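[step 3/7] inverse_fold.run input=structure_tokens len=289
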């Protein structure tokens, strides 16, 4: 008699688990799996924005996307922007986290002030900086061309992203710093380690999981950059700030109106992101070993 009742309880438990998981699974299927499947179908079809699906044309979409005159410049610019943003953000966020790691009234004020920009949406922050950089509305004196040259446009956008996200990454690293046991630092002091030696041989190794998370988030977000460049520069001047995601947008909705080619480029970007994340995971795991 006990075996059937036990089996019934297991069945009820399994059904309860499926009931709890069903809404999330449905959400994932509708908003992630189905769109990826549709993009995959578009990538191998002659699919215009207004004409719809006109049949199979693989692999022309992929070859046409790669042979686009802006493809390699967009790839190079996206990589350059990703490296600059990631290095500056991580160094600054780590410095801010070390600055405010002690609990005090003034450090609490500093934490809040550093974190406030993170509450602002990226599009709103971009519009704010667009007004700041505009010669007509800017409160900054002088005739400074923030967006007039390729390098100034790049660095002006990097400044926006650093201002917007430094507090967020500071918070992630601050959590990692506060999870390091104080006994470890005490042992390092007893061994005669100085501040630099303690930071290098104690703080950084124990902070590696938090640094890994910040690196992955920053690299992924930078490779998918769109809003800030679309609002600030529209890809200019002279298409010098076109990112790979902005190129996808241009293929789909501006000029070419080719959803198939844009979908093919999206698949290539997705594959590149998977490769980058796998390399990062393996590299960080290898270092931890």
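[step 3/7] decode complete -> sequence:
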């Amino acid at each position: 008699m006990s075996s059937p009742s036990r089996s019934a309880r297991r069945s009820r438990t399994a059904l309860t688990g499926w009931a709890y998981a069903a809404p999330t699974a449905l959400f994932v299927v509708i908003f992630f799996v189905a769109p990826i499947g549709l993009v995959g179908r578009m990538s191998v079809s002659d699919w215009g924005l207004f004409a719809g699906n006109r049949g199979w044309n693989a692999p022309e979409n992929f070859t046409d996307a790669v042979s686009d005159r802006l493809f390699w410049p967009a790839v190079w610019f996206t990589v350059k922007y990703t490296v600059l943003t990631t290095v500056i953000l991580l160094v600054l966020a780590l410095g801010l986290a070390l600055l405010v790691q002690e609990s005090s009234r003034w450090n609490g004020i500093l934490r809040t002030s550093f974190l406030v920009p993170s509450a602002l949406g990226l599009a709103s922050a971009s519009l704010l900086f667009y007004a700041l950089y505009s010669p007509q509305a800017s409160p900054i004196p002088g005739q400074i061309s923030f967006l007039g040259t390729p390098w100034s446009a790049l660095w002006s956008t990097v400044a926006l992203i650093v201002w917007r996200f430094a507090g967020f990454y500071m918070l992630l690293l601050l959590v990692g710093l506060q999870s390091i046991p104080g006994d470890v630092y005490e042992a390092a002091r007893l061994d005669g380690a100085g501040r630099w030696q303690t930071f290098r041989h104690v703080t950084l190794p124990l902070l590696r999981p938090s640094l890994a998370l910040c690196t992955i988030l920053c690299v992924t977000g930078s490779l998918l950059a769109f809003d800030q460049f679309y609002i600030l520069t529209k890809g200019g001047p002279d298409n010098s700030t076109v990112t790979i995601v902005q190129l996808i947008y241009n293929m789909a909705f501006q000029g070419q109106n080719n959803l198939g080619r844009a979908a093919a480029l999206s698949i290539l970007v997705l594959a590149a992101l998977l490769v980058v994340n796998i390399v990062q995971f393996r590299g960080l795991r290898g270092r931890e070993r």
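[step 4/7] annotate
The radius of gyration is 24 Å.
The mean pLDDT is 88.
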